Hints:
Strand order of the largest sheet: 1-2
Strand content: under 5%
Structural class: mainly alpha
Radius of gyration: 22 Å
Distance between the termini: 39 Å
Mean pLDDT: 83
Largest sheet: 2 strands, antiparallel
Order of helices and strands: HHHHHHHHHHHHHHHEEHH
Amino acid sequence: MTAADRSPLPASETAPPGQDTARGGDLIPFRQAVKTWFAISLQTFGGPAGQIAVMQRALVEDKRWIGQQRFNHALSYCMLLPGPEAQQLAIYIGWLLNGTRGGLAAGTLFVLPGVVALLALSAIYVAFGTAAAVTGLFAGLAPAVVAIVAQAVWRVGRRSLTHPALIALAVASFAALALFAVPFPAVIAAAAVVGWLLARLAPHTLKPPTAHAGDDGPAPLIPDDALHHEAPGRRRALRILVAGLLLWAVPVAAVAVLTGAGSVFTTQGLFFSGTALVTFGGAYAVLAYVAQQAVQHYGWLSAGEMVRGLALAETTPGPLIMVVQFVAFVGAYRDPGALDPWAAALLGALLTTWVTFVPCFLFIFLGAPYIERLRGNRSVSAALTGITAAVVGVIANLALYFAEHTLFTSVDTVTAGWLQLAVPDVSTLRPTALAIAVVAVVLIFKVRWSVLRTLGVCAILGLSAALAGVPGI
Length: 473
């Protein structure tokens, strides 16, 4: 790819890099931004690791719309928030590029393909169960995602871990999560403290990353030192807070009035509103609680169906927390009240999706202007640099988790003192999944195929194996 190919837009169509744009102005044409976010949304497979990698490649490396340090700074802030950090990162960057409407467009498009795909798959599941063709497609996609996540760990780590001290912090974060089951918030808090200490005791460890081969293209449209025009303020914050809370609460209140306080819709709206506030550390951190409540307390679906719902969510674009849409769909379908079961399922799924993702917009629009002004604060920047290093370990832990549960049918937890190890049962290895994963690794790392192209090939391999009657699909 030449420098001309990577140029974001003709100079006449953009504001100069770093320029304080007019209030409400766009750094790039809004239509161009929408097209780009839609293209990104179709590639958001592989959980947060894959999603972050897609944005890294598209926005930092290819289009050069945002600098690497600015990208890392935004990502570190999003990792501190409850909810899907990759979608929040999209909202943040969309806001940087096109203001509030840019954030709304980026965040909405980021989840829209996943919402549509999971609605369709949920309906297929309810209507047809585990059809061989559907099972085969999933059996091909899941191993491909393992390779995509591995690529994400490499890409994000290569850019962010610029000193052995930061590499050590990433490794320590991975070990804390994978070996000792340390809570995610504790890992992030510790990383922030370590980053702050490094800035005070060994500031040379936090130097900006040096350029990599192939990074000699044009300067990013949003340089690392640019200042966003939208300043924080009490009036602005109050306006956004009131609007966000109303948008969040009114649909739940309307459902409660129309269907009753004890209806499945009201229960789902309130329950998933609560889970949206405690999903620190990504979906995996809260899914155990969701599964326990949905299966044992509310009886919306069985434990086996919860696992199948997770598989659906892992092989569709968008955040993994989208699995709550499947839970709501199945639960409302089986307890529709006075509504038609299909209408009830659609209402439950859409309401749950709404209360899950609206808070993400609220958190970013409220906090981003303050975080932007803190980029010059050395203590805050150092703490966020520590968090960024820890994020690499977090993504690596997610990659390990996904690989174990994709390549093996059974994974046991072994406790030995402080250690808590997830040990796969070697006898339950899925040879077909392993073979497809190897093909995906070769296509992505050696042949350098795109994510979508790789997913397409692997889906065909999985479908062919299922139709041929290969065991273990």
